[in-house]
Structures are given as C-alpha cells and as structure tokens.
Amino acid sequence: MMSTVRTASTRALAATATLLLLTAAAPAADMVPLMDSAPEAATEAFAAPSPWQVRVRGLGVITNDSGSVNGVAGSDLSYSDSVIPELDITYYLTDNFAAELILGTTYSNIYGEGSLAAVGKVGKTWLLPPTLTLQYHFTDFGAFKPYVGAGVNYTMFYSQKGDAASSLDVKNTFGTALQVGADYMINEHWGVNFDVKKLFLKADFDATIGGTNYSGKAKLDPWLIGAGITYRF
Questions:
Q1: Which terminal Cβ of the chain has fewer Cβ within 10 Å, N or C?
Q2: What PANTHER family does its record include (predicted)?
Q3: Residue 157, CB half-sphere, CA atoms under 13 Å: how many?
Q4: Contact criterion met (CB below 8 Å) for 123 and 110
C-alpha cells in the first residue's frame, strides 16, 4: 500500500515538473523570432545605397579650332565655344565601377580661317553628343569621391544652316571620351561635383560656297568643363 502511494506521488511530481518545463519553454520559443528579427532590422538600417545617381551641371564647351577643306591649301576652321546645362545619369555596377550616360546639346558657329579667312562665318549647326563612359570610383577618401572614366560618344548634327555657304551638312560621327572628376558628398544623398571631359570628335562635312561644292573635316575635339549638384538615390 505504501509503495503504491509512493509511486503515485512520484508520477504526480514528474507530471508537475514536465508541465512547468513546458510552460517555461513557451515564452522562450516566442522570443526566438524576435531575437532573429533583430539582425534583419540592423541589416536594413545599414542597407547599401541605391545604385542610381543623377547630376545636373553647368558645362563649358571649349572647342579645338582646327579643320580643313579638301583641295584648298592652307585652309583652316574655327568654332564658337558655349555654356550649356548637362544631365548625367549614373548606375553603379559595384562600389567602384559605374556606367554614366551624359546628355546635353549645344550649337557651334563655323568660321573659315587661314586661306579661308575671307569667307568669314561658314554656317551654324546644333549638335547632340550623348556620351557613355565606364568609370572607376575611388572609395578611400570619405566624403571626397574622385573618379576617372573613358567611353564613346555619337554626335548628331541637326538644324544646320549655311551663312557664307548656301548649304552645310556636317555628318554624324562616333568619337571617344576621357573623363576625370570628383564628388564631395554633403550627406548620403546630396553632393557637389566637378568634372572634366575630353571628346575626340572629327566630323566630315559638305558645303556649297559660291556655287562650288567643298568637303573636308571639322576637328572639334572639345573640352567639356563642368560643375554642379549630385543626387544619389
């Protein structure tokens, strides 16, 4: 009889202990997802910036005054400089490498020089030279972020008008580009930018002057010097 009572008591104590252990484990199990979510929240707080960036710049276009007319000894050409707005769209492939599309349009007056100086203003053309560069961004200087780049452009000439020439046709052409610049980031989104590009651009042209047809090459090769505002999404 005594043995039976002891056995019942032992079973009761075991059941009670099991119940207490299960009760204590339940809150601990509920806490696991909360503890797991903490690293996720921290990861989101320190998420990488968007790969997209835009810049708006004021840009000085300074041309190389050089060119020639076929069959005219001592011929030369010069072109007007200009100041224009420019929009750049950048996509970061990695922290260091980015692709940038450069958009802007301007016009240029074309003048005869050398043996063509008496001709004066040959005509005027607008040009749109979208340029795509691949950049390397240095990341070891804190808020100061310099970069270098190289790429290609395709220059389209439009709204062409002759002056001394009764007709003017500057041909669309491919060119290459070199670039160096830097951003100084004021915060994670906003910064200021300075940028210098050199385009190697030599376009063929046809012109009619005094009833005679001429052809030649306009060696524009402009420097593009700009400063503006950067926004990183």
A1: N
A2: OUTER MEMBRANE PROTEIN W, PTHR36920
A3: 23
A4: yes
Cβ-contact 131, 151 below 8 angstroms: yes
Q: Are 146 and 136 in contact (CB under 8 A)?
A: no
Identity of the residue numbered 137: H
Q: Give 192's DSSP letter.
A: E
Contact 69, 113 (CB under 8 A): no
Across 8-36, b (16+ Cβ under 10 Å) vs e yields eeeeeeeeeeeeeeeeeeeeeeeeeeeee
Contact 110, 77 (CB under 8 A): yes
177-210: b (≥16 Cβ within 10 Å) or e: bebebbbebeeeeebebebebbbbbebebebebe
Question: Vertex 131, ends 125 and 132: CA angle to 5°?
Answer: 165
Dihedrals φ, ψ of 202, to 5°?
A: -130, 110
pLDDT one-digit tens code per residue, 98-154: 999 999 999 999 999 999 999 999 999 999 999 999 999 999 999 999 999 999 999
The pTM (predicted TM-score) of the whole model is: 0.78
With CA atoms as reference, report the closest residue to 128 among 79, 89, 172: 172
